[in-house]
Amino acid sequence: MILSDKDILKNIESKNLIIKPFNKKHLGPCSYDVTLGDEFIIYESEVYDLTKPLEYKKVKVKNSLLVCPLNYIGDVEKLKEKYEVDLAVKGGILGTTNEYIELPNNICAQYQGRSSLGRVFLTSHQTAGWIDAGFKGKITLEIVAFDKPVILYVGQRIGQLIFSYLNTPAEVGYCERKMSKYKNQSSVLPSLIHRDFE
Q: What is the pLDDT of residues 28-49, one digit of tens each?
């Protein structure tokens, strides 16, 4: 069963569900809007060899970034100067939410990008929208522009969380599992899929 605004507030007030910071204005009829954080990851590996740790650099953005489609043929650096953004990238970039969440073992969540961003052909998650019961941490975003360059601003609403009750609580929550790779993440993290091969 999907949680309504009343259900979400009830769980927040009882501290069964934690969202920090929590802003009541971001509460929808059956979702909660999350905002874009200021830390990002740009991959530097020539090839994604999934058996090895990937090369990347982590960057912090003060105000805004420009995300360009991979097939963009213009000069990305000129766009950066023209629109006075802190960072300009071509292709995908990993971001994170400002919000830290803690899900109990009886609630799971789904992350969905905002419809308003979808209408300019920008996605903030590719296939990783599921958040298991018992997860604690910030949500990593997989941001890609498909049509034209898009300027994003730190702190803007980027997506929404949809919460659901489990029929019975999970016996072992996400952060209780030894094999969970992204438990308690406090910042953006790269893919840790190489650990599957260890």
A: 999 999 999 999 999 999 999 9
